[in-house]
Specification:
Helices cover about 30% and strands about 20% of the residues. The protein folds into two domains: about 100 residues, no CATH class; about 100 residues, Arc Repressor Mutant, subunit A (Orthogonal Bundle), CATH 1.10.10. By secondary structure, the protein is α+β, with helices and mostly antiparallel strands. Strands 3-2-1-9-8 form a five-stranded antiparallel β-sheet, covered by helices on one side. The protein has a three-stranded antiparallel β-sheet with strand order 10-12-11. A two-stranded antiparallel sheet has the order 4-5. Strand 6 and strand 7 form a beta hairpin. The longest helix has 16 residues.
């Protein structure tokens, strides 16, 4: 999942004659990190930003015409879980996977069981580096303040954090084995690391998370072989610095 930024890029009308009453200036930014919105939000733009932020949080801008952006969310491939603070050292939040719930007739099978029904009844595994920016304009016809909205990094807050932690663990495996086949990354994790950390890993969720890493330029994928970029190596180093010694040990980073 992705951090999203809206930037004021101009005014479609003469702002000197018809000034923006919220006093937006070119270059002003509003950032959504998956948990918190930072920046000044005009009330008339709040619902518009909300929809755009959620769409790009999910797809990063990869969704095409007719696709539901929410179909790109990685959590469609995740199991049910319970809150357990002892697991916070792994996922940053404290979710413990519960792949088996006999009393609910529930059993999670990686790559088969979906958390819920995705929008439109299908999930999408994003690939490639093509993404689009959204162009939004305020409703004041006198000024028409225009914003560019774009995904600019991986989200690492709120319920995005467990997926970010998994992405960093995957990135670490890729750095250790340059050119590793996408479908061999799972083999680099122990059984305990696969099933006892949220989200449980499988081929599909790894493909989703590698797709997010690729979109942000942290890895390159060619013929299903994956290599970390210098930007990716710097990202992992930054992530490691943000972790406590206990978290680094738990994640083997």
């Amino acid at each position: 999942m992705f951090k999203v930024k809206a930037t004021v890029i101009g005014f479609d009308k003469d702002e000197q004659k018809y000034p923006c009453h919220f006093r937006y200036k070119i270059g002003d930014e509003i950032v959504y990190d998956g948990e918190t919105i930072t920046g000044r939000v005009c009330p008339s733009m709040a619902p518009v930003f909300g929809r755009a932020f959620n769409d790009l949080l999910a797809s990063g801008g990869r969704h095409k015409e007719g696709e539901a952006p929410g179909s790109y969310f990685p959590f469609w491939h995740s199991p049910l879980s319970v809150y357990d603070p002892t697991y916070k050292k792994y996922d940053g939040v404290g979710f413990r996977p519960t792949p088996a719930r006999p009393d609910e007739d529930y059993e999670f099978v990686a790559d088969e069981t979906l958390f819920d029904n995705p929008p439109g009844g299908k999930y999408i595994i994003g690939k490639g580096t093509n993404k689009r920016e959204l162009s939004l304009v305020c409703g004041d016809k006198h000024t028409l303040t225009r914003f560019k909205v774009e995904a600019f990094d991986l989200a690492d807050k709120g319920d995005s954090l467990p997926y970010y932690r998994r992405e960093m663990s995957i990135l670490n495996k890729i750095i250790l084995k340059p050119g590793i086949a996408l479908n061999r990354i799972l083999n680099e994790f122990t059984k305990d690391e696969i099933i006892n950390i949220y989200p449980i890993l499988g081929q599909k969720i790894i493909a989703v998370l590698v797709g997010e890493l690729e979109l942000m330029g942290y890895v390159e994928v060619n013929n299903e072989k994956v290599n970390a970029t210098e930007k990716g190596k710097e990202k992992l180093a930054s992530c490691k610095k943000s972790l406590t010694p206990q978290e680094r040990q738990a994640l083997k980073l």
